[in-house]
Specification:
Mean pLDDT: 77
CATH topology of one domain: Alpha-Beta Plaits
CATH class of one domain: Alpha Beta
Strand order of the largest sheet: 2-3-1-6
Low-confidence stretches: none
Structural class: alpha+beta
CATH architecture of one domain: 2-Layer Sandwich
Shape: elongated
Number of helices: 4
Strand content: 15-25%
CATH superfamily of one domain: RRM (RNA recognition motif) domain
Length: about 210
């Protein structure tokens, strides 16, 4: 009987302690809620006051200043290049260009704009290498600027109006020579690259 009474007293004391703890927790929760509400009110009041101050404060214009330093720099041109002992400047510039010399002289620009002497070689095979033609003409004393094969577009089916076209290489070559005194001598050439040829002048446009 004494043991049963002791257990009952212990259970009652534990239950009382649990109830007291629950009451304490509820009180703490209530205090936290009250503090939170007060804090929210203070924040809203501070925001309202700050917005009023911003709206009531006068707007000050922002001035942007830009300073530019003015400096004067004189650029001196390099002295001209002179070559002693040169009598024929045009011939010198042709040789420089033939040797693929690099330069930016005004005389070189003027020379490049000069009209080339053009002729047509008839009778060579279309597959002849333009470099071979250029080399043989150079051995004959001509300064060759360019050699190109003449090509035309031809219909695959001549009877069909909408037929596709193909490129046909002709046994004709354009030869552009640098202006020289012996340019007319190219018309006297009868054999070139193991072919019997005929050199003609280009047709004049009507």
């Amino acid at each position: 009987m004494q043991t049963t009474a002791f257990r009952t007293d212990v259970d009652a004391s534990i239950w009382t302690q649990i109830q007291n703890d629950n009451a304490t927790l509820k009180q703490m929760v209530m205090e936290l809620r009250l503090n939170n509400e007060k804090l929210q009110l203070q924040i809203s009041e501070m925001n309202a006051v700050g917005s009023k101050e911003i709206l009531s404060s006068p707007k000050k214009p922002i001035k942007v200043t830009k300073e530019v330093a003015k400096t004067s720099v004189k650029i001196h041109k390099p002295p001209p290049i002179t070559v002693c002992g040169v009598n024929d400047l045009k011939k010198l510039m042709i040789n420089l260009k033939f040797e693929e010399a690099k330069g930016h002289e005004q005389q070189m620009k003027t020379l490049a704009n000069e009209k080339k002497f053009r002729a047509v070689i008839r009778g060579l095979h279309p597959e002849t290498d333009p470099c071979d033609i250029k080399n043989e003409l150079s051995e004959l004393g001509h300064l060759v600027y360019n050699v190109t094969n003449i090509q035309i577009k031809k219909k695959i089916d001549p009877n069909n109006k909408f037929s596709d076209r193909t490129i046909v290489r002709l046994p004709l070559f354009f030869v552009d020579l640098e202006p020289q005194a012996n340019n007319e001598d190219i018309f006297k050439i009868k054999n070139l690259c193991y072919h019997i040829i005929k050199v003609e002048s280009t047709r004049k446009k009507k």
